Amino acid sequence: MDDFSAIVAQYKERLYWHIRKMVIVHEDADDVLQNTFLKAWKGLENFKGDAKMYTWLYRIATNEAINFLNSKRNFQTAPLEDAGHLLHHDAYFSGDELQLKLQEAILSLPEKQRIVFNMKYFDEMPYDEMSEILGTSVGALKASYHHAVKKIKEWFELNEI
Questions:
Q1: Residue 25 main-chain phi, psi, to 5 deg
Q2: How many CB atoms lie under 10 A from the CB of residue 60?
Q3: 91: confidence class by pLDDT, cuts 50, 70, 90
Q4: Domains plus CATH for the chain?
């Protein structure tokens, strides 16, 4: 197995789930993941090792997912917040009802808050790594996470869950 195949094998699952939380649909996540690894392969010679390999790949995956969402937004008639119904019929989603409701609440967040919440809550990523990946200050990330948590709590209260 060559070096790049080892990188793919090591990071594909974690990157897939990061992307999946952003784009929701399995097939879209697969496409974005493939684009992520293509971009990484093309840019591998420029990787200087200043950042950790995972942080570098995570940044590429995040940017690819955001690009995908932006391009989809131009053609999509229903907002992403209304995509919660997709989870009900998703063969790849194995969560219980409460987990499904949490995902619906997360989908109601603005894109930046949704990304920050997912990275902090699910991936338990430190703010300094998030800052490196997203190019945002630690203070702004903490504020985004705080607002996201507050909005999720409000969503649960409004939906009486």
A1: -85, 130
A2: 19
A3: low
A4: 1-77 (1.10.1740.10), 84-161 (1.10.10.10)
The 10s digit of each residue's pLDDT in 35-73 is 999 999 998 888 877 668 888 999 999 999 988 988 876
What's the N-to-C CA distance of the chain in angstroms?
A: 49
- Tokens standing for residue 60: 């590429």
Tokens standing for residue 26? 């399995």
The beta-strand segments (E) located in 9-115 are none
Residue 29, Cβ density class (10 Å: 0-12 exposed, 13-18 middle, ≥19 buried): buried
Q: Cα–Cα distance between 29 and 61 in angstroms, integer?
A: 10
Residue found under tokens 């392969």: 41
